[in-house]
Amino acid sequence: MKKEFKEALEDSPIIAAIKDDNGLQRCINSDSRIIFILYGDIVNIADIVHTVKESGKLAMVHLDLITGLSSKEIAVDFLKKYTEADGIITTKPTLIKRAKELGLYTILRLFIIDSMAYENIERQVGSAKPDLIEVLPALMPKIVSKICKISSTPVIAGGLVSDKEDIMALLQAGVTSVSSTNEAVWFL
């Protein structure tokens, strides 16, 4: 993981995740140095990323949520060529591999919905080798703690985080940062 990204993570225990233009405008005033972009389409994603970059923040685009992009490696190439994105978030290990080849930061998003999903973590992370993993939903500190212990890859937790108590429990469980679309959480 490059120094700039690592420092931004250390400075950002709370990562602002945006899902619309209102969130985009508000995240610029947050202390988060990293912004997760969870919306957009092939027409406006470059503008959204540009707005984030102009505010001095790192822009991580959730590739799976950008309308008009396929789930193929060419989507990563598009993002690299036509935007200023610093990296990607995705549930697809093949896209992580391509992004790493292109020099982008990578976050593999994992939904831990049952024991089978939990048991597949090591295999998925081992094959993709992302810079970070993001575990959803976040409100399982006991499980998140186990994941942090078995993973040599830093862990971000996200999903359903609503207050300082949630954040403190997750940080104590060992996560590097907590991502949230809840704007009230950004300013804690």
Describe the protein in words:
The protein is an alpha/beta fold and 188 residues long. The chain is 44% helix and 20% strand. The chain is built from 10 helices and 8 strands. An 8-stranded parallel barrel has the order 1-2-3-4-5-6-7-8, surrounded by 7 helices. The longest helix has 10 residues, at 45-54. The model has no long low-confidence stretch (mean pLDDT 94).
Structural class category: alpha/beta
Oligomer: single chain
Tell me the distance between the termini: 27 Å
User: What's the order of the H and E elements?
Assistant: HEHEHEHEHEHHEHEHEH
How do the strands line up in the largest sheet? 1-2-3-4-5-6-7-8
The coarse silhouette is: globular
* Total count of helical runs of at least 4 residues: 10
Low-confidence stretches: none
Mean pLDDT: 94
Tell me what portion of residues adopts beta-strand conformation: 15-25%
Keywords:
188 residues; 10 helices; 8 strands; alpha/beta; 44% helix
The gist of it:
By secondary structure, the chain is of the alpha/beta class.
Present the secondary structure layout.
Blueprint: H1 3-11, E1 14-18, H2 21-27, E2 34-37, H3 45-54, E3 58-62, H4 73-82, E4 87-90, H5 93-101, E5 105-111, H6 115-119, H7 121-128, E6 132-136, H8 141-150, E7 155-158, H9 164-173, E8 177-180, H10 183-186
Parallel strand pairs: 1-2, 1-8, 2-3, 3-4, 4-5, 5-6, 6-7, 7-8
